[in-house]
Amino acid sequence: xxxxxxxxxxxxxxxxxxxxxxxxxxxxxxxxxxxxxxxxxxxxxxxxxxxxxxxxxxxxxxxxxxxxxxxxxxxxxxxxxxxxxxxxxxxxxxxxxxxxxxxxxxxxxxxxxxxxxxxxxxxxxxxxxxxxxxxxxxxxxxxxxxxxxxxxxxxxxxxxxxxxxxxxxxxxxxxxxxxxxxxxxxxxxxxxxxxxxxxxxxxxxxxxxxxxxxxxxxxxxxxxxxxxxxxxxxxxxxxxxxxxxxxxxxxxxxxxxxxxxxxxxxxxxxxxxxxxxxxxxxxxxxxxxxxxxxxxxxxxxxxxxxxxxxxxxxxxxxxxxxxxxxxxxxxxxxxxxxxxxxxxxxxxxxxxxxxxxxxxxxxxxxxxxxxxxxxxxxxxxxxxxxxxxxxxxxxxx
Length: 397
Hints:
The chain is α/β, with parallel strands linked by helices and 397 residues long. The protein has helices at 28-43, 68-75, 93-106, 138-143, 151-161, 166-185, 220-223, 233-238, 266-272, 297-308, 326-335, 348-351, 358-373, and strands at residues 4-12, 15-16, 52-56, 84-87, 112-120, 193-194, 196-199, 205-208, 255-265, 278-287, 317-320, 377-384, 388-396.
């Protein structure tokens, strides 16, 4: 089988996903174009050789409608003959884009693919694509007559099922901010973050290069004062085990951002004089209970480990998306994973979760961490809406 490698992977710094956030004034097409242009410029590749651009985006409506991948690559100045397609696997959309890109290369269909992701949650709020419509239909409602739930309730169910206390969740969340702040102070994000030209509050044109969602002074004590965000009587009646622990502080914040990876065959990289940074070792994608919803990273990880013949202890770093604090904690508990290897530079609770861009964001952080520490294998996995998850294992070159 043809070997697929990562030549480079980059991201924007996070922006708060609401009006007034650093990236709110940047149209998502322009945000995606910025990472695509930077990726081509950094690698020096002839953009005309790119076989496809595959971009993840969840809320494909309004500013993000009509195939933002195609719009983004044209805005970036890529040749018109380069195609682009936009995919939605909810929070794992750009991780799936990476998987599709690598599979196209491994099959021999393509030689060079850019996998990317973008989400402007400040301009296209979460759920906008279903606003005023019924996204489920009668037959799906008939299969789940008690009704599907939103992710906040799923996080509450997981916290109760695994027995995590409010203190457990808040302490883990404070850890995320502390690790992210330490990584930023140590310059550990410098290689993955590319600048986005924005206007600050004073109207000056500046480069946005610092994650706006990280709060360095966050403590578990401060987080403990926040009120539960999802307490509703209808859910309390349906799920009496829930004791309401999920808050804005132990959840990922609304975020704007974009990210992209240049993926090609090892042979093509050698031909073009490109130096790969990592290779793909294995992939998995699974479905799970759409009520618990956020537990699918557990079977996805088991599946990818089984397929690759690796054990959890063989992996040097785990990037498990922190949609809510119970997700990585339940994952680690079920798999017996070393917490010291889990999101070692902080996770989405601190660094943000720009939905469609998060998959390639995690990949950027993982590749850079392996290079910095000399680790060999890295695993990333992400819970996804309606009960799905992707898992990917890479090997540093």
